[in-house]
Specification:
A hairpin with a 2-residue loop joins strand 1 (4-15) and strand 2 (18-29). It is built from ten helices and ten strands. By secondary structure, it is an alpha/beta fold. Helix 4 crosses helix 5, helix 5 crosses helix 6 (151-163) and helix 6 runs parallel beside helix 7. The chain has a domain at 1-80 and 205-252: P-loop containing nucleotide triphosphate hydrolases (Rossmann fold, 3-Layer(aba) Sandwich). The strands form two sheets. The protein has a six-stranded mixed beta sheet with strand order 6-7-8-3-9-10, with helices on both faces. A four-stranded antiparallel beta sheet has the order 2-1-4-5, covered by helices on one side. It starts with a strand and ends in a 7-residue tail after the last helix. The protein has helices spanning 44-51, 74-80, 85-88, 97-109, 126-135, 151-163, 181-194, 207-213, 231-236, 238-245, and strands at 4-15, 18-29, 33-37, 59-64, 67-68, 82-84, 169-173, 199-203, 216-221, 224-229.
């Protein structure tokens, strides 16, 4: 059995008397793709914010590789290998695809803000950047201006910039949101590809994506864990159908 790499114990977040996340116990197994699903307002994004400490928890603990990280700064958490995609996925539209990945790699080198250096000072990063682009099937777009990429390709570029930080655990927030069917299929295959040797926790509304990718699913409703298990058991749970899936589950 895989080891637990990311865990929450009694994780709770209150806002002026409103409980957005209520005593959530979550265990993510190393090497798994784990989905966090639920209706709008269920607390999914708040959980992500608590895991990466963009928000401090009211109560409870977050453990990463057995270490309590609830008091660490977000950048420190990212350096430990727990990386949320949106933290570094803001691509620069006027830069080339290759240049965007080089900027992400530069962060790891600790020279992110040395903008006074000439552009060719980053040429030594080209080989690594191209390798990352190959992982997400963007090698043929390396010299294209990022603003000209189709939406699905931009999301693939965001995966590449996330991988540049060498994450052990990737937190992906709605990776297929707003995509057409063809782009969804492409991104699903990319996630499956880049998840090899890594752990993924993802928030995702597309249930076909969840059923295709995920080893385990946690369902939130009103800030609490409603159900957990594999897709077959979760989708058959009448409480889950009522709270989230409804008739959609019959077609997945």
């Amino acid at each position: 059995m895989s080891n637990v790499i990311l865990e929450t114990r009694g994780l709770t977040k209150e806002f002026s008397g409103f409980t957005a996340v209520d005593s959530v116990d979550l265990q993510v197994q190393e090497g798994h793709i784990h989905a966090l699903i639920g209706p709008n307002g269920a607390g999914k994004s708040t959980v992500f914010n608590l895991l990466t400490r963009f928000l401090p928890a009211t109560r409870g603990a977050v453990l990463y590789q057995g270490q309590a990280i609830g008091k660490l700064a977000p950048d420190r958490i990212a350096r430990l290998g727990l990386v949320r995609s949106f933290q570094i996925s803001a691509v620069f539209g006027q830069m080339s695809v290759l240049e965007n990945v080089r900027v992400a790699l530069q962060r790891e080198l600790g020279t992110s803000f040395h903008f006074w250096k000439p552009a060719n000072s980053l040429d030594h990063l080209n080989q690594r950047a191209m390798h990352l682009l190959e992982l997400v099937d963007l090698q043929d777009f390396a010299l294209h201006k990022t603003a000209e990429l189709p939406y699905g390709r931009k999301r693939a570029l965001e995966l590449a910039t996330t991988l540049a930080l060498e994450p052990k655990v990737m937190l992906l927030d709605e990776p297929t949101q707003g995509m057409g069917h063809e782009d969804v299929e492409r991104v699903v295959e990319l996630i499956r590809k880049v998840a090899v040797g890594r752990t993924v926790l993802m928030v995702e509304h597309n249930l076909r994506v969840v059923s295709s990718l995920c080893h385990r699913i946690t369902v939130l409703a009103r800030g609490s864990v409603l159900a957990e298990g594999d897709y077959a058991s979760v989708s058959a749970n009448p409480l889950v159908r009522e709270a989230y899936m409804g008739k959609e589950a019959e077609h997945v």
